[in-house]
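Help wanted!
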Amino acid sequence: MRYLPKSPADREAMLKAIGLRSVDELFAPIPAEYRLTRDLNIPRQMAESEIVDFFRQRSRENGDGYTSFLGAGAYFHYRPVIIDSLISRGEFLTAYTPYQAEISQGTLQSIFEFQTMICELTGMDVANASMYDGSTAAAEGVMMAVRLSGRRSVVVARSLHPEYREVLATYATHQGMPLSVAGFNDDGRLNLKDLEQLITPETACVLIQSPNFFGIIEDVAAIADIAHKHGAMLVVSIAEAVSLGIVEPPREADVIAMEAQSFGVPLGFGGPYCGVIATREKYVRQMPGRLVGQTVDKQGKRGFVLTLATREQHIRREKATSNICTNQALVALMVNIFMTVYGKIGLRELAKQNLAKTAYAVDQFAKQGKILFNGTPRFNEFVVQTSEDPHAINNRLLGHKMVGGLPLKKFYPELGNAALWCCTELTTRSAIDTAAGLIAESEWSLRSSKEEDVEEVAR
Amino acid sequence: MKHMTRKATRHVNQNEGLIFEKSSAGKAAWKLPPLDVPEVDTAALLGGSERKDLGNMPEVSEIEIIRHFTRLSTWNYAIDLGMYPLGSCTMKYNPRVNEAVARVEGIANGHPYQPEKISQGALFIIKTLSEQLIEITGMDAITLQPAAGAHGEMTGLLMVRAYHQSKGNARKKILIPDSAHGTNPATAAMVNYAVENLKSESRGMVDIAALAAQMNEDVAALMLTNPNTLGVFEQDIHKIADILHAKGGLLYMDGANMNALVGKVRPGDFGVDVMHLNLHKTFSTPHGGGGPGSGPVAIKKALEPFLPTPVLTTKSDSTLAFDYNRPQSVGRVRAFYGNFGMFVRALAYIQANGPDGLRQTTEDAVLNANYIRKGLEGAYDLPYSTPTMHEVVFSDKLQLKKGVRTMDIAKRLIDYGFHPYTTAFPLIVPGALMIEPTESESKEEMDLFIEAMKSIAEEVEEDPQTVLDAPHSTRVSRLDETAAARKPVLRWKPAS
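Answered by r_m:
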């Protein structure tokens, strides 16, 4: 086997040194009746060339070459080449969690820079070294608010990513955290009256997303006022990190739970991504996950260590803030490099291009289809309502090697024939024009067939 | 130079500040193409929501970024540099073909919501890996959704709870051996189970009599790591399973140490009802400095209705699809389908090995651990003489006489060119040195390790201060962790 660095003679010599005759003796502690006496029923060893062929074939069966208008929590942005050059260095790729600080300063310093940039972008005081993803970060953010407030119930926006809501429901079920759901208005924003009614003296926090699942930017200040008036905390989920380049961050929030996939992480069919929690300094001891802090060595030289570990499972066991131990370090490094490449000016320009493409697409789609929540500030997503079922329209788009917006009936039946579309800096004008044209055709054909029906009835 | 190592030599490496300290206005590492649509008036579109300033975000050029991260990287130890004998972490070689295939266009850029008809490639990868992990574990079904081992534990216990609930009583507690990973009790708490500690007996195994006495209808499950954290296979595993099953309890196996078992024995065959795997341990996906992981949960038939949604199915036209209609499901534990990129890497690893390669891998992992055990016997105290599998746990009892603890020995090992072993775990061994070489180490590398460990043992006798002050050869000496925790500095701020 090509990954194993021993010759038969090495194995013999080692067995001899141990004082054994055969390797079977090493497995003697396993009761004989359970020992496997056959080969595992899996395919034979494959050559590297065969493995590459296998995955190339799978790639061809997986939307390779399609132009996509999908967003909804997973965004297709350009990834600068140097991200993969740098994360492929074995010193980053094949290192473990940096417990041994003296030989992990590379990972530790880069996480410290990551934490700093997340703070700069979110307007929070502290950020952790990452969480699994945006959905679990949101759930952990809520659990943090429950611990901090000593209250248990949670009001969740219906305009939070539906799968994030599902994950929260799973986490909340056995922790005695009742959830209630606040609806949205005709303008796509959280229904504040609904929120006022649902919030009680038992409410630990309100969880919203901004830009929300429909791409609409919430009035975070107004929501924070209501939450804080009732002694509840505000947890804000951000699923589209690029929005932070041009959209004011939710500074009024107490906890921000982010998905940073947009910052240089491949779509990868849904993962691995990079969750992050950011919060105010006073709440740091209830934060889940790893934290890197600055300190000095014996000679007074600056260095970095994992810190505040007394929150964590390996010390606190069942009293820990969370069971999380591993985070998404290598993915956080991608995010870190992306933030460094674009930096102070580039992130804003990148976000502006997203805004421009989306504004253009909204104009084109609005000519024939109906854009929901139009007029409310949004980032790079919009909801298109059509006469025809969006699945049917998307099927025709596939013929043009295009993937249309996400049909919303599964998550929001009340919106009818609606789909969530997304444009990023990578979406071309011609793709937008083609998609808008197909929507227009769909509307015309349905309208003319209706007119024919009317004529037939008249006759 | 009696105690100098053959493994490593000091060499110059570059100093490097924080990226913010290199930033100055007007430098840039990015270039966007010209817009092919009209420019927009951001103030008109966003109103009061428009952000005007990005604070202290850096402005640097591409070469500076390359040098910055390359310099930082040289300050890390890594498997690619040498043996990384962290017990319980299974730091094995991360094959590069795994990285290559994870970056093939349609795999790297597949959107999780693209229509299933153009996602058959990804779904086939999920199906194939699922089937192979089921065969390897001897279980009946699996979910790949959990993002890490601890996340898998939570998913597993959610299913345990749902199973008992379906029988009318969710039960109250989880039994956890005192040798267990800290995640086990933390997870039980997240699923609202009380934790009851189970003592180990003198050989380091589960005390069968204690288990029988503690087992009752309030116990939902026993969370067992097998081989346990001492590297000892629970020889009475069938009795353990029988005791649990007789009272309606379930046997949960923490698969952290699956590298000792693959191809040699299957947990499903020895009575395990639910278990998680760590693709980043046993199946070679990179640790990446602490993630991403992936923690699939394999289960027996009786738990299948409770799997997280969605579950992969084959439709009547033989295409693959996700089934979201699972009324008894515990729900979702993560958005989308899990850390798919890690599935790709794990499958590539299994393909490269085949049945014979996986078995040889396990044999070599166990052989390596026993070779180190033999090599260090006498130099270090072995608290349990029970035969060990893929890892071995020594204690610092002999060195403590000179005031030297496991952490000091670990730090000195750095000077000899090795990453330390796991210190102070498992908790049942005071001053533990937990060593797991994995199959990836050659005889030469292990001989160097044994030589280094023996040399340190001699240093402890002759000159303990050298060990106490270690490491001596790193960029930074021992860091003040107490100060870091007392007055946390968790981000850079500009000098005011």
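OP: Thanks! One thing I noticed: Residues 340-376 of chain B form the longest helix (37 residues).
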